[in-house]
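Same chain as my last thread, 400 residues:
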Amino acid sequence: MHTIMAPPSPESPWTLSPLQTPSPSLLYHCIASLHRHEGTIYSITVSKGVVFTGSESSRIHAWKQPDCMERGHVKTNCGEVRAILAYGNMLFSAHKDHKIRIWNFMVSDSFRSKKVSSLPRKSSFLLFPRTNTQQHKHCVSCMAYYHAEGLLYTGSHDRTVKAWRVSDKKCVDSFVAHEDNVTSILVNQDDGCVFTSSSDGSVKIWRRVYMENSHTLTMILRFQPSPINALALSPSFNNNHCFLYSGSSDGTINFWEKEGMSYRFNHGGSLQGHRFSVLCLVAIEKLIFSGSEDTTIRIWRREEGSCYHECLAVLDGHRGPVKCLAACLEMEKVVMGFLVYSASLDQTFKVWRVKVLPDEKICFDYVDQSECRTKIMESEMSPVLSPSWVKKKIQGNFFR
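reply #2:
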């Protein structure tokens, strides 16, 4: 059951951020807020005008863009959908039995879905059941899909990363990637580089061995010992140039800049503003969206051709930690529009419409601009955490 609440300020839906921000060049408002009674949403993905949410229940809900009216759901036989990923008409979902399901879905007058397969596939030796050695030994926490090669990458709390060839449903490579839980995984669609992060505080870059399926470690990025919870990759207008962002448990977002035609990444700085852990990151165009344990979502903008960033706004509609985010471009003219989807441990799911005005004079919320950042921090109020989340937090680590 879901309760739809009216957005704030109904007489004037478009409002500036209620907090003082470095730039007045962004407008946003919450166009839908749903309170869920089926437990926490763990993951969000968007494809073909449909928003999918995976949660503690055995149903993956499908919502219509942009107003998030429910289109239908994917019924699974195993709950606790920790990670979901959509590409085209394919949907990948990871469940508490440590398996991945592949679905095809169709969107027309009605929403329809069909299970294609499971990874790993069931053994043909039905009379002698045995544990599949290709299966993850712990929950699958993250997934990424390499479009050009049809490879699905899965990261797990068993510290391993596996590469699955979707065409024949085979595991083509499996390797221990970190010393602790793998928390996030990305693929650069331009060159096939794989990025992984972990609770061990490191980000690692992997490349496939030429003419083989195996992967080799090419670089380790480690700037602080704090556990890393999320990664985001932001390409520049130059195809050989991109920025990698990592969200840490100390509230910092570190970023690295790719070095021209090489595969090296140099540390460019850090974005500071969140008080508690950064739990999720999304990069689209020149914007970076970060969700935090401090209950807020921050919207950052990178100046083209430089490492400077500004914080455009702080969205503070949730009353619990923001667990997952998704964003998509809604319009691309003089004014850029985005739809942002956020889910929190307060069991709410919100949809935000964001409009970014053309660049004006920028005041950077960058780590070196300490005076500017101090003024911003002083103007903000302390976050209010929901009592139910605080109780769960005391009982144990709720983010795992």
